[in-house]
Amino acid sequence: MSERYSALALARHALTGAPWRRAWRRADPRPHYDVVIVGGGGHGLATAYYLAKNHRVTRVAVLERAVIGSGNVGRNTTLVRSNYLLDGNTQFFEHSLRLWEGLSHELNFNVMLSQRGQVVLAHGPAQLDVLARKGNIMRLNGIDAELLDRGEVQRLLPYLDFSAQSRFPIHGGLLQRRAGTVRHDAVAWGYARAASALGVDIIENCEVTGFLRDGDRVTGVETTRGRIGADRTAISVAGHTSQVAALAGLRVPVESHLLQAFVTEPIKPFVDHVISFGAELFYISQSDKGGLVFGGHIDGFNNYTQRGQFPKVQTVAECAVALIPSISRLRLLRHWAGIQDMTPDGSPFIGRTPLRDLYLNGGWCYQGFKATPATGWCFAHTLAHGTEHPLIGHFSLERFLDGNGHDEYGHGNWTYRQ
Amino acid sequence: MLRIPCPHCGERDYTEFRYGGDASKPRPAHDERDVRAWHDHVFVFSNPRGPHREYWQHVLGCRQWLILERDTATNAVGTARLARDGAGS
Question: ipTM, 2 decimals?
Fold first, then answer.
């Protein structure tokens, strides 16, 4: 169906001028599938791919309301890392990073992983202690982490504000060299192409309008392109989890918030790493085109407008200049917002729901993009076997009932509720 | 910029206010023993795309808690009234 991408194929197309074939099939819905996945974002497409690849479940449909990759997989700031502290998160995100490291070969699609390293900064001795503890936990789990003192950070990132007047003096940082960035659109396209080649139907412009029920069992979906039956149905619709779950009569611990992201005009190579500010939630990297890419906090009240509030633009710009004074005269080229599921403890939900044969993946807060491969891997396992993959047992929808909230930062979810 | 019509102070930028979340959820009775009732009250949200009734406190103004009508799909703001006059109703 799809042709293999290689240097040889590139040369052949260059010499003959033959057009490239479509990367994935345009599919029409069939009446019944083994698994129907609602949502054609990174997570849904990755889940479909691993269902077909790891579990030989190929009668799978991915239903997308608009076009694939038009949601948060193309709206994030493209960072991947596995510097997590809490048991459960550490192993899950490391599994994800290992999958990222082999993804271009796995999918035969260049996702442009750039392991440029991420530095998380400490602006006081106590904060540096916390980073030392986190680094030790990472190393005990076999993950690379290096604690840097002020001088080492200055040698690595000399353009940060090390002056006597700096508002937030830099005391050190934690470096994960394997962290970095990925070209996010390529992730959606790569998974779509690889899943389609294994027989998965990717059906665009197909909005789910309801769920088919047989008692407490979900047997498929009603869509704008007709009724589709399924042995198992999966929801993976970041940002609109509450709306789609409500169609099945479920209320979930999720609020939808806006997260803004920014790109400056392009400049020559300058910021060679991913840098996380320690005094506020702020992170910055430089894209291959030269623009500085950065983001900060959510706007702070739940909404779906995909249009951010101006005070947050000011806060983020203040963070950027406090960290790197020399970029104060750069102009912002683009600026956008994505709708993000926020959960009470900042951790996601992956697994079964109170309804039989209905599965949920959502509530990803700030961390959905970097989790894409591991979510697909574990969610596919869960859908194939009907029980949760061991790496996601702590992401249960019912965890708050038992007092088992999974709170990486120990202060809630960075919303107004923290 | 979201602007909120405070009944005491007039229309002000939302940055003068603290957000307090969904105001339509009734609090369980104080002697409620069912854990799920408290779980649902604390952790579960309707999270509608559309009309939403919500708490805001005017921390940089009159410091009163308000109940505001806002559309979460457009951020169009309706009326605001004092929360103490009818919280949870």
Answer: 0.93
